[in-house]
What does this fold into?
Amino acid sequence: MVGVLELLNLTNQWKYNQAGIDLGTSWRTTNYNDAAWASGRGLFYIETASLPAAKHTPLAFTNPRQTTFYFRTHFQMPSNANAVVLTSSNLIDDGAVFYINGMEAARIGMSNGPVFYATLAERTVDNATNFDVIKLPNTNLVVGDNVLAVEVHQHATDSTDIVFGASLHAAFTRQVPMRPRLKTPTINENFVHLTALSESGYLHVLDVSTNLSNWAPLRTNTALTGEVQFDLPFIPSTGGRFYRMRVIDAD
It folds into this structure.
C-alpha cells in the first residue's frame, strides 16, 4: 500500500533568526532552544517582485547586511511510515542547506564542501519564480517529532532580496499484512472452536454469514498474535454458518 502525507506546507509556521550572528552548528540540532527566535509563516521575504505563492512574513537586513538567515520547524512522522521517500518543494533566493534532526539532508544552490555562516551561495536568483524540488534522505527520521532546519545564504554581500518557503511530503509504503487464515473448525454440542492464524500488529474482524452473501461482524478489532482460538456458541437450529477473517485499517 502506498500513501502520500503532507508533513509541511508553504504556509507552515517556522522559527527564524535574522540577527546576522554566526550561530555555528548547534542551531540545527533537535534539542536547540529556539524559544527566543521570532516566529512566522512562509513565505519569508525581502522582495518587491511578485512570487508564485503568498508572502506572509517580511524579513529585514541588518547593518552591515547579513548573508545568512536561519529557519527551524517541526514535523510529525507517523509510526506506520515505512520506506519513506521525502520530497521538498522550495522557493529559495539564493541558496540553502537543509538538515533533518541535525544531519545535513540536501543543498540548493550551494557548492560542495563545508558551509559556514559567511559562505555565499554559488547561484544568483533574480526573482524566486521557480520551485526547487528535491529529495531528502530518510536515514535520520524518527517516529514522532522531527526537526527540519534550513540556512538560507545570499549570493553576494550586497544582495537586495531573500525568499524562503518550503513544503515537505512523505511518500511511504505500508507493509501488506499476511492474509489471515481460519483452520477447519471443530464442533461439540456447545461451541464452535475456530483457530485463526494471522500476523501480529494488525486489527481484524471475524465475520459470520449463513448464506455467503450477508456478513455480520462477530468479533471486531481483535489484535491477533500468531495462533488464536475462538470459542463461539453453537446453535444447531440456526443452520449452517460461514466464518471469515478480514484485515481493517488500524489508522
